[in-house]
Amino acid sequence: MKKRLKLVAIILCHLVFVFGINLVYAGEIEFLEHFTLVDENNDAVTMAGRELDVGDHYITADNKLYEVVRVANKNIHLKYIETVELPDVSEDLLTAQVGKPGSSQGVVGIYHTHNAESYVPTSGTDSKDDGNGDVLKVGKILADAMEKSGVEVHWSDNSHLPHDGQAYIRSRRTAVELLRHNPDTLIDVHRDATPPEVYDTSIEGTPATKVRIVVGRQNQNRWANLEYAKRIKAVADKFYPGIIEGIFDARGNYNQDLGPKMILLEFGAHTNRLEQAEAAAEFFAKVIPAAAGLTPATRQSAQEQMGTGARKSIFWMIFIVVAAVVAFLLISQGKIGSLRGFLRREAGLSNERDSDPDSKE
């Protein structure tokens, strides 16, 4: 019995510290200050309202993959890795009547971890104290527009205030509630915090914001969700070129450990107008069903294209479990000390990581 308890404790410990599912670090804290991402030539690549960590990745609008190598003051230094090849969705979208009434079928869940987020030019504030932020209107428009195409959408306006490092712990309860509806995809709708020009755009002659996709790299579903993010971008690039600002593959889990096809979308920044973000949501309501495989023409290819990421996630999960079992065997044989000492060392490593001066998350 004692050995079984040790094994369970070790597995849970590794799940916590490897996947980042913990109370100390569940997602980003926004400080309403922006950071500039620069390449090897110190040329600006983009801006973000979050400080990234060494090892984070960013895929640009033109599909260039960069890795964060250094953080210095307000500059986040990147190293070019490669140009990413997005999934080929051309053939799917030729026959998909996406956006038309009855063209889609499936279930989508939408919620807002930072429900107070707002747009200054429209509301005169970046955050509403009552929690009824402008971002709720963006999520509701996204939900209503998808419902018109036949998708069953469950939208939550639950409050997760205050807007602090524990907000993702509170919104996790909402995400779990939405999962009871068996959604094909779960979307956490936000807005960023950058100068307006980062997200300003025009889609089909309509002023709108760009959309940034965020994937948490500290959970077992990272690869599946990253493939999903790439497919979203591939579909969006076909329907509305330029609407995607980029993809962050960043430290944190953002509750994406709960399953595949969990995604965080940022509609503009606090310096953009609400009307622009609402327009982007209308356009994006056509993107999500095709990307998630909610239309007959896109279902099979979506499953195939995202299957690679799912397999990577499974292999990673197996690796973690095997590592936990090996650690248990070593402990039981007295080769790496007691369980208590092992957990203390693990916790020590986590605390050291969380106190890294380059990390504000």
What order do the helices and strands come in, and which of them pair?
Layout (H helix, E strand, L loop, with lengths): L1 H18 L15 E4 L5 E5 L8 E4 L3 E9 L2 E9 L6 H6 L11 E5 L8 H4 L10 H15 L3 E4 L11 H13 L5 E8 L7 E4 L2 E4 L1 E6 L5 H18 L4 E7 L11 E8 L4 H19 L6 H34 L6 H16 L7
Parallel strand pairs: 1-5, 6-7, 6-8, 8-13, 11-12
Antiparallel strand pairs: 1-2, 3-4, 3-12, 4-5, 9-10, 11-13
Summarize this, please?
The protein has 361 residues and is an alpha/beta fold. It has helices spanning 2-19, 90-95, 120-123, 134-148, 167-179, 222-239, 274-292, 299-332, 339-354, and strands spanning 35-38, 44-48, 57-60, 64-72, 75-83, 107-111, 152-155, 185-192, 200-203, 206-209, 211-216, 244-250, 262-269. The longest helix is centred in the last third of the chain and has 34 residues, at 299-332.
Model description:
By secondary structure, the protein is α/β, with parallel strands linked by helices. It has a domain at 90-305: 3-Layer(aba) Sandwich (Aminopeptidase), CATH 3.40.630.40. The chain contains 9 helices and 13 strands. The strands form 2 sheets. It has an 11-stranded mixed sheet with strand order 2-1-5-4-3-12-11-13-8-6-7, sandwiched between helices. Helix 1 (2-19) packs across helix 8 (299-332) and helix 6 packs across helix 7 (274-292). The longest helix has 34 residues, at 299-332. It is globular and about 50 Å long. It starts with a helix and ends in a 7-residue tail after the last helix. Residues 5-31, 309-324 and 346-361 have low confidence and may be disordered.
Instruction: Name the structural class.
Output: alpha/beta
The global form is: globular
CATH 2nd-level architecture of the domain at 90-305? 3-Layer(aba) Sandwich
Please give the share of residues in helix: 25-40%
Q: How much of the sequence is in beta strands? A: 15-25%
What is the radius of gyration computed over CA atoms, rounded to a whole number of angstroms? 21 Å
Q: Mean of residue pLDDT?
A: 83
Task: Count the E strands.
Answer: 13
Adjacency order of strands in the biggest sheet = 2-1-5-4-3-12-11-13-8-6-7
User: Topology as H/E string?
Assistant: HEEEEEHEHHEHEEEEHEEHHH
The biggest beta sheet reads: 11 strands, mixed
Distance between the termini: 38 Å
Low-confidence stretches: 5-31, 309-324, 346-361
